[in-house]
Amino acid sequence: MSIPADKTQFKTVIVGGGIVGAGIFRDLVLNGVETLLVEAGDFSSQTSERSSKMLHGGIRYLENMDFPLVFEALHEKNLWLKLTPHLAKEVPFYLPVYSDAKRPLWMIRIGLYLYDFLSSFKNSPYSMKSKSQTLQDIIGLNPEGLTGAGVYFDGIMDDAKITLEVIYDALAEDHAYALNHTKVVNVRKINNKNTLTIKDQFTGVETNIIADQVVYALGPFTDIFLKQYDFYNWQDVLLPSKGSHIWISARDLPIAYPIVMTPQDEFGDRVIFVIPHGDKVLVGTTEVPNKDDLFHVTPTDEEINYLIKNLNSYFPKLDIKKEKIIGSFAGIRPLVREGNSAGDRGKTSREHKVFQPSSDTYVIAGGKYTTFRVMGREVTQKICHRFRVSYNRDKTETPLRRPSVIEPFEWRLPSEADLVHICETEMPKTFEDLVMRRLSISTRAIWKENTSVDFDEYFTKHQKTLSKYFHVSNENIKNFK
Ligand SMILES: Cc1cc2nc3c(=O)[nH]c(=O)nc-3n(C[C@H](O)[C@H](O)[C@H](O)COP(=O)(O)OP(=O)(O)OC[C@H]3O[C@@H](n4cnc5c(N)ncnc54)[C@H](O)[C@@H]3O)c2cc1C
Question: Which residue in 215, 288, 365, 394 is deepest, having the highest Cβ count within 10 Å?
Fold first, then answer.
């Protein structure tokens, strides 16, 4: 709903429009609490569009004995597979096992059984494959030393679109407001009330708003934001962990199912997923300390070499060179420090934490994309309690009501009428918002590849229409080639 010009006071303001902020927004407004969501860039333009795009229980967290987290994540995975079938789908993941592996096939079998057990057997059931079956299913996989594979089921999804649709669904309520490209640039307590200065990132216009309750869902930006304000007395809580991905064309890496690679090397004992998304394959991730500016993280050469090296050890005949990369991206996991994790990012739990730096302010950090709904619930319940609103947890177990025009797994460019509809209903404010988050995953990953689709021609044809909504120059269009 658009905000009336004279409205400057809100029951709750959420700062941060990634999946965590979006989830709390929906939960609050479905339970009747007036809420404004404020996001500095486009919704879901930071960590929440740079994940490995899996709805998953986290098979590798079984090793850390994180059973409650895996149980919760599996439940959420299976719920969202049901609620958003157009944005997520269940697929078999192949975990190839080699004779020198740390975990032999029998151990994998136990792990996969436990995984299905923790899902209350709602996962499609795991299976074990012989060497020959595995090689038949996964074309090009290295046969040397292969003993077989375990196959289990998880979800693949469009992370940006789920966040957007969670926000669109919330906006169906008339006490829900959301602003993208609007940054919170100052916070003060005036007469004991939270006064936030928000700045329109295009016009530079600043406005003061008052919030009875504030929620910070800032992901990796939590510490740098909160430390600016003495009254929060904030101490760092995050152990930021960078992860990078590359996209390869399915022509160069023609696999039918996702593969889990388990290298044991200088980066420690971790996993790399190789996941087909239509005509592209997503490969990642790494797990390293971050050295970049948090708003502009990119994969380093070292991380890219690491991913390519492992791809070639699993698929030696495909001889994948760096030149075959058609896109790449990096994000920061907002992990919450643990006393005993001693800075080991891989072993640090993916649990979330809620902090309360002042009586009317919550800060939420950590967690996983998959568990966003249950993460947010803790905060929503407390806010409902404070405002004496009865809380119904089942309200978020309903399908999203405003599906986006372009579904993530379809390969189609919108018609002129669709483009107009997207611009009018899906809140893109820039050309990048449109291309990166309102079209399909395939469109997003395609711009560096030679393709039969001429993007120049397509966008130039629609430039006049798009220019009614935001600035589109020839330069913009070329940048997405
Ligand atoms: C490499 C990688 C792979 C991952 N893979 C998976 C996976 O496959 N499955 C899974 O379940 N989880 C995965 N995760 C975890 C998951 O992506 C994150 O836990 C989740 O996206 C974090 O969401 P968030 O809303 O907390 O943060 P964000 O999405 O970063 O949102 C925080 C928002 O705050 C905004 N902001 C910052 N400052 C201001 C300000 N001053 N004013 C207004 N807004 C502001 C930012 O612009 C940002 O959009 C992965 C994470 C990474 C990094």
Answer: 215
